[in-house]
Amino acid sequence: MKKVLIVLLLLCLLVSAFACGGKEEINLTESTFFYGMLTITMYPDEYVNKKISFDCFTYRLTDTSGTDYMCGVRKCSSGYGCKCGKDTVIGFILEYDGEIPEPVNQSEDTPDKAWIHVEGELASAELTELEIYGYNGDQVTYEYVVFCTFKVSSLTPIEDYSGLSYYVTA
Questions:
Q1: Residue at 32 is within a domain
Q2: In this structure, is residue 167 part of a structural domain?
Q3: pLDDT band with cut points at 50, 70 and 90 for residue 6
């Protein structure tokens, strides 16, 4: 119960700091990425036209209709969008006029990925719900994931990602 209260308090602090006239520029860091993403996904209206920057790795999601989405994500195992007991990814669908590095080792549980630093803003407050094949990829079970679309204004590859967390958690 104590942990739940602490989590709720932290979430309230993030909402008030980000959404209620706080910073116009938001930097999702190692310590704020998870709760920042939860807050942005739950209250996207509050973040449209605000500058956001973060580090992530590239990840290609393909929905059940065959449409590909290039995403900037981190791995997580709890929180909004994370399936109970199953690891998943949390992040944004990326919109960029330039070239986004192709995902590396996407099917492997390793931090050796194509890491990038991105800056930009939410393209809109609209959430995109993707129907994807189940965690085990059996093409029989479906899961749903929700992402905001992020309009990238600047993208820089990260060569030394040793200080970045592959997993983000509460």
A1: yes
A2: no
A3: very low
